[in-house]
Amino acid sequence: MRPSPKDRLAVALDFPTAKAALDLVDQLSGTCQWFKVGMELYYATGNSLVETLRNRGFNVFLDLKLHDIPNTVAGGVRSATQAGASLLTIHASGGPAMMAAAAEAATGYGSPRLLAVTVLTSMDAAQLNATGVSSTPAEQVLRLAKLAQSSGVHGLVCSAEEVGTLRAELGDDALLVIPGIRPAGSEIGDQKRIATPHAAIERGASMLVVGRPITQAANPAEAAELILKEIEAAS
Asked: Pathway, according to UniProt (predicted)?
């Protein structure tokens, strides 16, 4: 069965406080089902905000990009499970042992589905090269995606530029989550590799992550509805 547009949009709660985040959630009540909690908000509020969102009936995408030794990352996965997160990010660049440990920790009841972050959408070829990676972003994304899949992690975060290739390489069951989504006419901000909602879905995205085009809109609910309509049209 085809997923609902609401199941394919996660709104990024990029706020410094729980009050600011929940004010936005209240404005979007009835419009959006998924909310992404990133490092800024999580470090300020801890698991309490995740639990609040879950108790209100929302799904939580916990974007912590875990990257540490295998045992520590496995512990982080177990903590996210206790909080009730439905999705959790780890860094694919942490390597196969780390990802395998995370995947093993995510086999328990109520565990979040893991998403391996490949190459951040703020990075282009020049940024990658500065870190010692001579591959293009597309080459590095594919390399890390295959490494994640072989390590037991079947969800990926990548840009819309690479999603078509990953869908072809990894198959229909891979969960491909795409940040850097900017509706036509939106400010690009600090993102390098972006796409419209319609284009990302057409290329094979499973879920889109949208922040400022919704959270900084004059009418966030209206902005979200327009994006949901784009998703529906492209599905």
From this structure: Pyrimidine metabolism; UMP biosynthesis via de novo pathway; UMP from orotate: step 2/2
Write the DSSP symbol of residue 93: G
63 is in an annotated binding site: yes
Active site amino acids: 63, 65, 68
Instruction: Name the DSSP letter for residue 94.
Output: G
pLDDT category at 145 given cuts 50, 70, 90 is: very high
Between CA 28 and CA 18 the distance in angstroms is 15
Residue 211 neighbours by CB under 8 Å, 6+ apart: 11, 12, 14, 36
Is 76 annotated as ligand-binding? no
Provide the CATH number for the domain around residue 210. 3.20.20.70
Say what the alpha-carbon torsion angle 81, 120, 44, 219 is, to the nearest 10 degrees.
-100
Q: pTM of the predicted model, to two decimals?
A: 0.91
Q: 156-195, pLDDT tens digit by residue?
A: 998 888 899 999 999 999 999 999 888 765 554 544 556 8
72 is in an annotated binding site: yes
**Whole domain around residue 206: which residue ranges?**
5-234
Q: Is the dihedral of CA 26, 30, 36, 37 positive or negative?
A: positive
The answer on whether 107 is annotated among ligand-binding residues is no
Q: How many domains does the chain have?
A: 1
Kindly report the average pLDDT of the chain as a whole number: 92
